[in-house]
Amino acid sequence: PYGGAYKSIDGGQNWQALNHCCLCFTTSLFIFNENKGFIGGSGCFNGEQIEQFNSGVFTATTIDAPTWDNNNQVIDIDFYNNNFGLAASKSGLILRTNDGGLNWDTIPTVAWLDNIELTSVLIVNDTLCYAGYDNLDNPGSGQSLLVSMDAGLTWDLENNIATFFYPAFLSLHQSGNGNIYSGANYNSFPDGKEGLIFEKRGNSSWEFQMVSHPINSFSSYNDSIIFAVGDSGYIVTNRNPQTKIYKPFFDGYKVQVFPNPAIDYIEVFVGNDFKKGIEIELEIYNALGQVFLKKKYSGTNPLVGLTAFPDGVYYLKISDGKGLIGIEKVVKSSR
Fold first, then answer.
1. Which of 183, 103, 45, 113 is nearest to 93 (CA)?
2. Residues of the chain falling short of pLDDT 50
3. 74 vs 138: CA distance, rounded Å
4. How far lies 282's CA from each of 40, 111, 304, in Å?
5. Helix boundaries (H) for 106-169
6. What's the pLDDT score for residue 241?
7. Domain containing 254: what range?
8. Pick from 75, 73, 62, 61: which is nearest to 29 by CA?
9. Which DSSP state fits 149?
């Protein structure tokens, strides 16, 4: 195989390879739970393939009339419920299942778009679906999103998202509150910008915002906190979680945290001046902004207990009466 898939059951601290059965190239995942999901890609000498895994057992599914080019991988998979699912192929075809993924029909999209590769697919409800695509005749361009109003059986262009940029739509996501997001690429933006984020709230029209890089993927937390990932390590969000790491000298302080990674405690060193009675405040939060500790210290280098913290990555924010001293990344691991 030229690709693989991995599984973590401890929040990403450790990863285990999944021994799938038939794929040579793995390019997409859809996970129902720890023991059930789908892996998409292509075979070594044929086109689209999707494998189902159930309690650790991998089986090949049946695709009606797949292509025979191993470059035509299944690039995205989405399910609305346990039965109805869609998958997007780089061949420009939509794959559709209504039996829980055992069998997939191949469905053409828009007939006159004859040289495209699909990039993403999203099932909004039991009838409304979207798919993104890139125009291979002019990479980085497209007319619009593709939309289906009949659960993926027929497709057309989404006229309500038209812009003068004509970008390639690379990614799709629906947040917990029902808002829909699409990330796009346009290769000749003014001012050096190369990406777009589209947003649709309820029945309102699509709105868009220019960003500095093409947006390849989205994730969300709770109902409305959205993270978008682009090229070259680019990440944007619709909130400011204060996760930038500072390691400065600041008004005579030098921040050090030991041990790090830590098992049950950390000691925070803030330079010699701290021992003279200067009060500081420590705040520990995770990447989602959840606060686990907020406390003031004075007189000695603080010793902070971490026993009750779940394993993971945290951010230690240190401030005094003058403002921020620094932010340190702390890894808590009981292993």
1. 113
2. 241-252
3. 21
4. 45, 60, 9
5. none
6. 47
7. 249-332
8. 75
9. S
pLDDT digits (tens, 9 = 90+) for 284-310: 988 777 889 999 887 677 889 999 999
Using left for φ > 0, alpha for ψ between -120 and 50, and beta otherwise, residue 232 falls in left
222 and 291 together in one domain = no
CATH of residue 128's domain is 2.130.10.10
What are the beta bridge partners of residue 146?
Answer: 131, 157
Q: Is the dihedral of CA 130, 135, 141, 144 positive or negative?
A: negative
Q: What whole-number distance in Å separates Cα of residue 183 and Cα of residue 171? A: 5
State CA 153 to chain mean position distance.
27
How far, in whole angstroms, is CA 39 from its chain's centroid? 16
Domain boundary among 203, 237, 271: 237
Q: Are the CB atoms for 62 and 100 separated by under 8 Å?
A: no
Cα–Cα dist 15/35, whole Å: 15
User: End of a domain among 237, 267, 287?
Assistant: 237
Find where tokens 């600041």 sit.
250
Distance CA(2)–CA(327), nearest Å, equals: 40
Residue 51: per-residue pLDDT = 94
Give strand pairing partners of 48: 42
Neighbours of 251 (CB within 10 A): 12
Nearby residues of 275 by Cβ (< 8 Å), 6 or more positions away = 299, 300, 301
Verify that 194 and 218 share a domain, yes or no. Answer: yes
How confident is the model over 48-91, as pLDDT tens digits? 999 999 887 889 999 998 788 888 999 999 999 999 999 999 99
* Coarse DSSP helix, strand, coil percentages of the chain, rounded to the nearest 5 percent: 5, 50, 45
Q: Does residue 283 lie within any of the structural domains?
A: yes
Domain annotation covers residue 242: no
For 32-59, give one letter per residue: b (16+ CB within 10 A) or e.
Answer: eeeeebbbbbbbeebbbbbbbbeeeebe
What the block records as the tokens of 93 is 């075809």
